[in-house]
Write a structure and sequence with these properties.
Elements: E1 5-6, H1 9-19, H2 23-30, H3 34-41, E2 47-48, H4 49-59, H5 63-67, H6 73-81, H7 94-102, H8 104-133, H9 146-155, H10 162-175, H11 181-193, E3 196-200, E4 210-213, E5 218-222, H12 227-242, H13 244-254, H14 259-278, H15 281-290, H16 295-301, H17 306-312, E6 317-318, E7 321-322, E8 327-332, E9 337-342, H18 359-362, E10 371-376, E11 382-391, E12 403-411, E13 431-432
Helix pairs in contact: 2-3, 6-7, 6-8, 7-8, 9-14, 10-14, 11-12, 12-14, 13-14, 16-17
Length: about 475
Amino acid sequence: MAERKIFAGPRVRRVRLGLGLTQTAMAEALGISPSYLNLIERNQRPLTVQLLIKLASVYKVDLDLLQGEGNGAATQLREVFADPLLSGEIPGDQEILEVAEAAPNAALGMVKLYRAYREQAARLTDLTDILAKEGHETSVSATHLPIDEVRDRLERRPNFFGRIEDAAEEFVQRLGPGEDLPGALKAWLKAEHGIAARTLPIHAMPNLRRRYDRHSMRLFLSERLSPFDRTRELAAEAAQLALSSEILAELEDLSFTSSEARRIGRFELARYAAHALMMPYGAFLSAAQKARYDIDLLRSRFDVSFEQAANRITTLSRPGAVGLPFFLLELDHAGNVIRRAGAQSYPRAAFGGLCPKLGIHSAFAQPGQILAEAAEMPDGTAYLTVSRTIDGPQAAFGERIRRTALLIGCELALADETVYGPAVESTAARVLAGTACRLCERRGCLARAEPPLTRPLGLDEMVTGLSAFDFQ
């Protein structure tokens, strides 16, 4: 039977040093030469089963200690290097394992530093929100990455770009797509720029949603995409060609500080322009007002997805032709924020959107169903919220569906102008929500997940409240 070989040099060295032994003394006790032990400790020779047994019998060493993965340090290091800030530094697990094996205490020190960094970043973000809520501006920010800069810049301004809207309406009028926008866009790309669009099967393009081949002048779209998303990709490609000067002008106004942020910002503006082509401003505003902002009716009328129509109603802020001031929040199962936007900027300080009581979290239990409710904040302001899940690209058999949830909201005083108003008329049915647990001071909240930053914990051996995070 083949003998199992284990390379565990750093662990053997730790055992020896922990016992205060020299290599010569340990080698003599194990019945091997000091030079051979030196090779074992440098992982140039394996630790055989016979030597494992000898170590266990002579020094009472736990065999699991010699065969484990650095006491779990490797698993915790993977968490550290999965952070977007470090994700490109180590291509595989081998170096992580080597660090965990050779220096487990140093590895755990790195993990502690990383967790302290994450906690500090969360506290700075909370502090910024508190100051913003009280009307104070601060330059202190937890934003580090280009994507964070882009998101923050877009969330804090109205989700409206006038130059793009005007140019998009003019382009659609020239294009004259009738009822076949995808066909008209394909014909325009081919006639004006020599670009042929084609849908490829999953096996030919397994990891991409789109790819533009400059040499053959072909735009490839994945069959994973829904027909609506394929249309958006075609519209985004056309917009970057036909509306390039308008997109560039809006990009300059955003004043991003790095080339990477500019690249991401350009992508977001192209996506915005695609929606403007698919749902021209004037026609969409008129239809939205007549349909009382019924998103399902609007997506059917413009042949778009629920997500696309929901995004579009947050952009109706043209001077002289304004719609209701909706805002939008998108989350995944884990509560990660994918996108925030608003017709008057996203109301982060007043609404937040991270309260676990909100319908956006309940939507995952009822995929595809629309949940309309009224949410009342601690200061008495109330909002109409409409939540629904949306599915990502088509998953193959055995793959997990990418599912996120959208929340569309506006002030409750405007609810009567929407089709969702009658469903939330009862004051008794209001959800008593908060901006986020760390900023909310509601007492006796069954859903509280964290204590508020603004109050000390009220731990009492004699009295226990409904939450594990009771506060004074």
